[in-house]
Amino acid sequence: MKTRFSPLISIKKDEMQKKERVMQRANADLNSASIALEMSYNAIHDIKSPTKGFVAGFLASRSLLDSSRYLINHNKEWVSFAEKQVSTAKEALKLSMIEYEKFKYLELEEIKKIIKLQQEKESKDLDEVALMVHQRRKRNEADLL
């Protein structure tokens, strides 16, 4: 049954679905960031420090460790940023769902009012028909006498 809230409900539903997609993308980004952080931790553990050799080898190993640490810090920041995005998306989705449910409730109440008015009208119509039938019977009885 269409009410004055029906167009608003479809708009709010579309909005809510968009926010759900944003939430899914934010979760995917967080998963990617977490995987990248884990991989960078594993990569730093795989780096072997030279125990003998030329100074250039030691300097190269140190540079590799420094770049791995920088990558770990970068990935930590990425995870932090992704967590903030998830939190923001979750809050926006929650508000959108509340709005959608609010309008659904208002539509349900409007439908209840419409049904109640229809039932009252139907009851009045039935009363009127019953009164007309009763009057017709009285006239028929009066004509027979």
Can I get a quick summary?
With 145 residues, this protein is mainly α. It has helices at residues 6-46, 55-144. The chain has a single domain, classed as Helix Hairpins (Orthogonal Bundle).
What does this structure look like?
The chain is mainly α and 145 residues long. The chain is built from two helices and no strands. 90% of the residues lie in helices and 0% in strands. The longest helix has 90 residues, at 55-144. It has helices at residues 6-46, 55-144. The protein has a single domain (6-109), classed as Helix Hairpins.
Which key features would you list for this structure?
145 residues, Helix Hairpins, 90% helix, mainly alpha
Could you say how many structural domains there are in total? 1
What is the beta-strand fraction? under 5%
Write the element-wise H/E pattern from the N-terminal end onward.
HH
Largest sheet: none
Note the total helix count.
2
> What is the highest CATH level, the class?
Mainly Alpha
The CATH architecture designation is Orthogonal Bundle
Name the poorly predicted regions. Answer: none
Fill in the CATH topology.
Helix Hairpins
Helix content: over 70%
Which shape, going by the Cα principal axes? Answer: rod-shaped
- Our measurement of the CA-to-CA distance between the termini, rounded to an integer number of angstroms, reads 52 Å
The helix/strand class is mainly alpha
Mean pLDDT: 92
The number of E-state strands comes to: 0
**Gyration radius, to the nearest Å?**
36 Å
